[in-house]
Amino acid sequence: KYASSLVSSFEEVSVSSSVTNSGEELPDSRPYLVQTRLCNWNSPAIKRKAHTVRKAHPQNVASQAKALWDWTRTGIRYGIGQGAYWDASASETLKARIGMSFNAANLLVAAARAAEIPARYGLVKVKKEAFEEAAPKELFEQMEDESEYVFASVYVKGRWQDFDIPRDKRFDQAGSLRYEANLDKFADRKS
User: Mutual orientation of helices 101-114 and 44-56 as an angle, nearest 10°?
Assistant: First the structure.
């Protein structure tokens, strides 16, 4: 179940480069460290944040991941428009300080990659009723029966840990299908 995979606690671990927290190597970490059109982790502001976090938590990838998650959750306000678009890059989301789950997950993946922590995207289909109490009535009435919801997944302690930005219980209960996503292809499909 989607909710059971969300990160709720972190343990201290030591790791370097592509070696996992359990000492086993991630078969190929390169796809999870690349920069893309949307995941532009090489942005100076994102790199600065990653450097600050790595310096504050040396040799402790789990603490680094949690610090980046907390920074994203508290620094990006949920919203649509005003910079929160399907094709906004991570640096654009950081500058606007507003985004949808898609934008916040993208920023977290970019920051993790800038910190040299393998990161990827996950996607869950969420039923419309999950938004009933949270969405304004006008928006809710325009929604499709099922929406795609993006979250970040970071390689910590020898396995993928899912980091959900809003942590809304209704999303957990209404989720139905989860899979790894290619964010650039997903954004192209949406725009």
Answer: 60
Tell me which H or E stretch contains 49: helix 44-56
Measuring CA to CA, how many Å separate 45 from each of 48, 75, 165?
5, 13, 20
Please state at what angle helix 101-114 crosses helix 183-190, rounded to 10 degrees.
150
Distance CA 118, CA 34 (A): 9
pLDDT tens per residue across span 19-44: 333 444 567 888 899 999 999 999 99
Give 126's contacts (C-beta < 8 A, 6+ positions apart).
146, 147, 148, 149, 171, 174, 175, 176
What is this structure's pTM?
0.72
The partner residues of 125 in beta bridges, in order of sequence, read: 148, 177
